[in-house]
């Protein structure tokens, strides 16, 4: 069973950048599709981005396209979310998630992900 630990969150000014990291232990990251979700205060947890186990495929929610980039380094057992041009509406707790990647399908449904990190908060000041 893979364990996921997010890091890199913090306070950033609107228009700035952050890179979130998701370190995996207890499993081989290349076995899993990876995703990032976020949950703002008082709102439902929402999908942000996903990347396939082989890094060849990615998908993003419309609100972050062109600003966020999901990536992974399987040799380091780490996934990343590079966030540029941050907006106040991006403020949330960001969660790393993993699911066994048996097909090429990248799910945006939180219930499809079996493994979750504890979350790292991102605050964007305006």
**H/E element string?**
EEEEEEEEEEE
What percent of residues are in strands? over 45%
Instruction: Estimate the global geometry from the Cα principal axes.
Output: globular
Radius of gyration: 13 Å
SS element count, helices: 0
How does the helix and strand content classify structurally?
mainly beta
- Which percent range fits the helix content? under 10%
Low-confidence stretches: none
Overall mean pLDDT stands at 95
Main sheet makeup: 7 strands, mixed
Kindly state the number of beta strands.
Answer: 11
- How many angstroms separate the termini? 40 Å
Verbal overview:
0% of the residues lie in helices and 49% in strands. It is globular. With 126 residues, the chain is mostly beta strands. The chain is built from no helices and eleven strands. Strands 2, 4, 5, 6, 9, 10 and 11 form a seven-stranded mixed beta sheet that branches. Strands 1-3-8-7 form a four-stranded antiparallel beta sheet, with no helix packed on it. The model has no long low-confidence stretch (mean pLDDT 95).
List keywords for this structure.
126 residues, mainly beta, seven-stranded mixed sheet, four-stranded antiparallel sheet, 49% strand
Describe how the helices and strands are arranged.
Elements: E1 3-7, E2 11-13, E3 18-25, E4 32-39, E5 46-51, E6 58-60, E7 68-73, E8 78-83, E9 92-100, E10 115-116, E11 120-125
Brief rundown of the structure:
By secondary structure, this protein is mostly beta strands. 0% of the residues lie in helices and 49% in strands. It is globular and about 40 Å long.
């Amino acid at each position: 069973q893979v364990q996921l630990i997010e890091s890199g969150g913090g306070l950033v000014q609107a228009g700035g950048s952050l890179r979130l990291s998701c370190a995996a232990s207890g499993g081989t990251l290349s076995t899993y599709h990876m995703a990032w979700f976020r949950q703002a205060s008082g709102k439902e947890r929402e999908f942000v981005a996903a990347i396939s186990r082989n890094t060849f495929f990615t998908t993003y929610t419309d609100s972050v396209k062109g600003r966020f980039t999901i990536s992974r380094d399987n040799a380091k057992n780490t996934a990343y979310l590079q966030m540029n041009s941050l907006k106040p509406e991006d403020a949330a707790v960001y969660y790393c998630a993993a699911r066994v990647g048996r097909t090429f399908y990248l799910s945006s449904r939180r219930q499809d992900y079996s493994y979750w990190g504890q979350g790292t908060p991102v605050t964007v000041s305006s």
